[in-house]
Every structure is written in C-alpha cells, then in structure tokens.
From TrEMBL:
It comes from Eisenbergiella tayi. Its cofactor is Zn(2+). GO terms for molecular function: hydrolase activity, acting on carbon-nitrogen (but not peptide) bonds, in linear amides; hydrolase activity, acting on ester bonds; metal ion binding. This is Succinylglutamate desuccinylase. Keywords: Hydrolase, Metal-binding, Zinc. Residues 33-216 form the Succinylglutamate desuccinylase/Aspartoacylase catalytic domain. CDD domains: M14_ASTE_ASPA-like.
C-alpha cells in the first residue's frame, strides 16, 4: 500500500512528495516486527532504487511467508533524483545533513522531521547509499562505534564484504542513521557501487541480506540465503590513498582484490607531456575496497582505501 508521508507546496504549483510502500504479511501478530528500508536521500545514488524494486518484488511473490511489516522509502530526495543531483534542488542542501529536522524549520527540515516521525517504532532501519561518481565501493555496512555492539549482529547478515566501524568523531550527527539510533531505532548504513549507476549483482546481494535480517527478526519464514562472514574493521585498519599531484589516474590494481605491500595501485599521468607524474604503491597489504572510478584527479583526491590487517583469501 502506497502511503504519502510528506506533501508540501512548492513555487510554481509544484509539490514535494515523499512516499513509502508498506507491505504487510497476511497474518500480523500484535508483536510483529517492522523493517524500514530507506534510500534516495542523495539524488545521484541510484543503487538503492534497484534494491527497493527487487525487495518489493520478492515480498509480493512470497507474501504468505511474511509475518511482519516492511516499509520501503525509495526516494527521500525525489527532486534530486528527478534531476540526478546529489543535493536537493531546494537550496542545494544535502538531505542527509538536516536530520532529525524541525517542524518549524525550512521545508527540508520539516520533511526530515516527518520522515523521522514516520520511522519511529521500527525494529530496524536500513539506510542504503551508493558512492558518488568518483569512487566505486564494495558492498559494506558502516557503523558508528557508539552503536556498533547493538548493530553488529544485523550487519553480519547483510551479505556484504566488510563492516566498517567508524570512530564517533567522524560520524556526522545530522545524518538519518545517527538520528534514528539516538532515538532507539537501530539503523545501519549500507553503501555499495558507484554514483549514477545501478549494479544489479551488488544490489541482489544486499536484497539477499535483507531477507536474512528479516529471518533474524522473526518476520520472514520463506527462502533466505546463507552468507559468508564479512571482515570487520575499525578506522585504524583502513589506509587512505590520496593523490599528491594533479592529472589523470590510471589504476593498475583491481577493485575488490587483495594487494600486497609495495605492489602498484596505479599512476597519475600528464596527458599533454606524456609523462608519469606519480606512481602509487600500497604501503600495507589488504583488500582494495574503494577505488577511484573518475580518472581526473587533483592533489588530495581520494584514489583508494585499503582494508588492512586481514589475510588474503585463497
């Protein structure tokens, strides 16, 4: 059932409309669990659109196995999605930096407040993101260390390659996930793929993970896949590789592959002079879980992230 949770008048007769699809089992118990799947807060992150579609499709095919409620919010920033723009066209504001919002604030702050209100009472919230157009990410769950102990059992079942626990100081307090966790609604941040694209293989893996989590919540008795355990990291186990010069980045290492200390990640070249300006090597061994997708780089640009302290899979 499609429910409208936000409807606001905009200039020129337009409206800001945010909707959810509520899918419920045929026989709901009073204590039935509720799962919220949220995505589309950044208009250039389209990976979540496929996940919403595939989750809804599978649920409708197996409704007899569902004993709880699944709320799917595919577009928190519908205006941004319409123009494939990361921020909201309403003031060029990052939608994921206005939570928990305010009933008396700007239009976006009012919308954020209504979203938070609607999510209250959920047993788990999955906030799904893609990367931007610059780097590609392997499927991963990101947790704040403040809430990691409570969230880790769910994160391990999400069928991702890694769980990245971030230090509290690096977590922005105005994100949806932080707002919900602070209100007692467990919220995971899932990240995968690259901006402006859909990676069905990655998305299907996350959907499998969603059904695993639904089984753990006791709301799904149908088919669900067993998954391997992800690597679990902290900030200290992630090496950031950044450009020291401007130019074009040509990777020689592959994304989602193990690299050994001293091996070459790629090089930055000067296209007009035909010279190599910088060669980039791994300082530590580990898994390349982030790799530059967009070749033009400037000094300080992120080229790769390596999850260190793990063994190479044979």
């Amino acid at each position: 059932m499609i429910e409208r949770i936000v409807e606001m008048e905009l200039p020129a007769g337009e409206k800001l409309i945010i909707e959810k699809n509520r899918i419920q089992g045929e026989r709901l118990r009073p204590d039935a669990a509720r799962l919220a799947i949220v995505t589309g807060s950044h208009g250039d992150e389209l990976e979540g659109q496929y996940i919403c579609y595939e989750t809804a499709r599978r649920l409708k095919e197996g409704l007899q196995f569902l004993s709880g409620t699944v709320d799917i919010y595919p577009a928190l920033n519908p205006l941004g999605i319409d123009v494939v723009q990361r921020t909201s066209p309403l003031g060029n504001v990052d939608m994921n930096r206005v939570f928990p919002g305010s009933p008396d604030g700007t239009l976006l702050e009012q919308a954020a407040a209504r979203i938070v209100e609607d999510l209250e009472g959920a047993d788990l919230c999955l906030d799904i993101h893609a990367s931007d157009v610059f780097v590609r990410e392997i499927p991963q769950v990101r947790l704040s260390e403040d809430f990691a102990e409570k969230l880790l059992p769910y994160a391990r079942l999400m069928n991702v390659d890694m769980v990245w626990t971030n230090a509290t100081a690096t977590v922005h307090e105005s994100t949806l996930a932080h707002a919900m966790n602070s209100r007692g609604v467990p919220a995971l941040v899932v990240e995968l793929g690259v901006g402006n694209r859909i990676s069905p293989e990655y998305g299907s893996r996350i959907v499998d993970g969603i059904f695993n989590v639904m089984n753990l919540l006791g709301m799904w008795k149908g088919k669900h896949s067993m998954v391997g355990m992800p690597a679990v990291s902290t900030d200290g186990e992630v090496e950031f590789i950044r450009a020291s010069v401007n130019g074009m980045f040509l990777p020689s290492a592959a994304h989602n592959h193990y690299i050994r200390q001293g091996e070459k990640i790629g090089e930055i070249v000067d296209v007009i002079n035909g010279t190599v300006k910088q060669e980039i090597f791994a300082h530590k061994s580990g898994l390349i879980f982030t790799l530059r997708e967009y070749p033009l780089v400037y000094e300080g640009a992120l080229l790769a992230r390596i999850l260190t302290g793990i063994e190479e899979k044979k």
